[in-house]
Each structure stands twice: as C-alpha cells, then as structure tokens.
Amino acid sequence: MDAKQTEFENPFGMDPDCENCDELCAARDRVVHGYGDVGAEFLVVGTAPTAAAERNGVPFTGPGGGERVQSIFGDLGFVRSEPDAAEPDVQNVFFTNLTRCRHPDRGPTDWEAETCEPFLNAEIRMINPQIIVPVGERPLRELAVEYTTRRPDSFEVDAEHATTIRGRGFELVPMREPAEMSDDEADAFRDHMRENVLSRDYRQTKGRQSR
C-alpha cells in the first residue's frame, strides 16, 4: 500500500454524488468507486457493482461473485482478509468497475459506460498497473479494444479466460464472470497467475521501479 494512502475505499476522492446518468441516479443506492492499493500492480475491472457491492460500497465484495474473487486473490496472496469481508484487507491489487452505479433491472447502456469512462481512465492513469484483469465479456472487450491492436470481434472471455493478452503498456489476464465460473475454471485462473504471471518479472511491461 502506498505510504501516503490513508484509506482503501475511493482513495482518489472521486465524486460520490455523480449525477451524470439520470436513470442510474434514480435507481442506485450509492456510487461505488474503486477500492484497494493505489500503488497496485494488479487492477481488477468488472462491469458494474453487484447488489452486495452496492450495499458495502466496495467492488467485488459479498455474494454473487464478490466472495469468489476475494477468495481467488486471497489464495494468490493479494487479500489478507476472509472472502466475506465487507472491507477487504488488500495489498498490490485494486478493484473497480467500468460503471460506478447499479441498475437493479439491467446492465449499463453503452452511453452510461462511455459517460463513466473518465473515472476508470483516471484510475488506470494514477495507478499505472502492470496487469489488468477484465472480469467478464464487456470489460474484456472495452479494455482490449482500447489497449490492444486486435479487432473488437476477436475477443471472447470464454476463450481468453486464464490467458495473457499483450496490451499497450500492460498485460490483460481475463477472467470469466465469477458467478458463472466453474471450480475448474477458477483453478485454471489461479494456476495461470502463479505459473505465467507471478513466476516471472511482469514488471518488465512498464519497467516500474519496485516500491
């Protein structure tokens, strides 16, 4: 954790009362910005907060996939708290989403994702990660189109799960939606991270100095 960081939740002080999307503002309980180590080399990006994450105010927490993600990254040494923690104790990882508000009946529209994009871009710029983990089809396509040279229609998370994609300035390691992931697929992600990411000097992607 960065020596100057004082809190994990919304550490960059992003607008907690954003009103840019009328339908989301009317439906949400709260804005859920990123959570974690601002000096992290690993950035985990989902589509939008789940109901549990909205209650906690923390991405990737609670039932509905959050506990599974916390368990996976706990096994890899990034999370020091139990998977059901509402405010996880993390190191070297930052959790966030494409969009910061939850609509109870649908996913975000393209316009809503585009409107929310500056929040994510700011986090990527300030964190400067080495590895980005897109969780699900939509984050994979959005990030891969933005940061790789491949065609947009060439990305499918089922095929890319637990692989490494070379990006511009960092690498992508896609993950299937945790609520839909089998135990074997979760194990495959852990194994790929251990054998192909954590076992080598991933810092060569940007040459970041060790903290």
Structure description:
The chain has seven helices and six strands. A six-stranded mixed sheet has the order 1-3-2-4-6-5. The longest helix has 18 residues, at 110-127. The relative contact order is 0.15. The chain has 211 residues and is of the alpha/beta class.
Q: Quick gist of this model?
A:
The chain is an alpha/beta fold.
Task: For the structure shown, list the relevant keywords.
DNA damage, alpha/beta, six-stranded mixed beta sheet, UDG_Type-4/5, 211 residues
What integer is the average pLDDT?
92
Instruction: Assign an overall shape.
Output: globular
Structural class: alpha/beta
Q: Strand fraction band? A: 5-15%
Query: Counting H and I runs of at least 4 residues, what is the number of helices?
Result: 7
State the helicity in percent bands. Answer: 25-40%
Radius of gyration: 16 Å
Number of strands: 6
Report how far the terminal alpha carbons are from each other. Answer: 9 Å
GO biological process, one term: DNA repair
Protein name: Uracil-DNA glycosylase family protein
Organism: Halorubrum ejinorense
Region (Disordered): 177-211
Topology:
Elements: H1 22-27, E1 35-36, E2 42-46, H2 51-56, H3 66-75, E3 93-97, H4 110-127, E4 131-134, H5 137-147, H6 157-160, E5 165-166, E6 171-172, H7 183-197
Parallel strand pairs: 2-3, 2-4, 4-6
Antiparallel strand pairs: 1-3, 5-6
